[in-house]
Specification:
75% helix; elongated; single chain; mainly alpha
Length: 165
């Protein structure tokens, strides 16, 4: 599980970097609009802020999946026997794997189709293809898929150990 902690640490650092860049970008946008003596063009700050927020949300959802901190409503689940609960949770993980696979596939198609497109306001400042920003969907799908597979494996192994007892 050391690898999982390292991955979670890297994703946390990326989230922190995205948040700091988002804060600086939005601060620049606010200052450039409200302070008259700042005479440089910061039109790109709005779009960079939007894309950084998207990345922050997608990375954060992957991190929540790794740390099993997504919102769950489990009051009904706790009413079942442990065996039924494990079966329902395994089914839930299976559905989540399917969702993550669809997310990864759709993200890949989006990245492939936007590889040569540039963001209109960012073209002047940064030569970043739109695919970089759209890759958030695919990256998050990969993170969540790996996390849910690890959790499902642990759950399945726990089920086997309860059956053998």
């Amino acid at each position: 599980m050391k690898l999982g902690k390292i991955a979670a640490g890297i994703i946390k650092m990326l989230c922190i970097l995205c948040f700091l860049a988002l804060t600086v970008s939005l601060l620049l946008m606010i200052l450039s609009r409200n302070i008259p003596f700042i005479n440089f063009d910061v039109m790109w700050t709005d779009e960079i802020g939007r894309y950084l927020l998207v990345y922050l949300v997608f990375l954060g959802s992957g991190l929540a999946m790794i740390e099993e901190k997504h919102i769950r409503v489990d009051f009904l689940l706790n009413k079942f026997s442990p065996r039924v609960r494990l079966t329902i949770e395994l089914f839930n993980h299976l559905v989540t794997v399917a969702f993550c696979a669809i997310m990864m596939g759709g993200g890949y198609i989006l990245v492939k189709n936007t590889g040569t497109q540039a963001v209109a306001t960012l073209r002047k400042y940064f030569m970043m293809p739109m695919a970089w920003w759209n890759s958030a969907i695919m990256v998050s799908g990969i993170i969540m898929l790996v996390a849910v597979c690890v959790h499902a494996y642990k759950l399945f192994m726990r089920k086997d150990s309860t059956n053998n007892s």
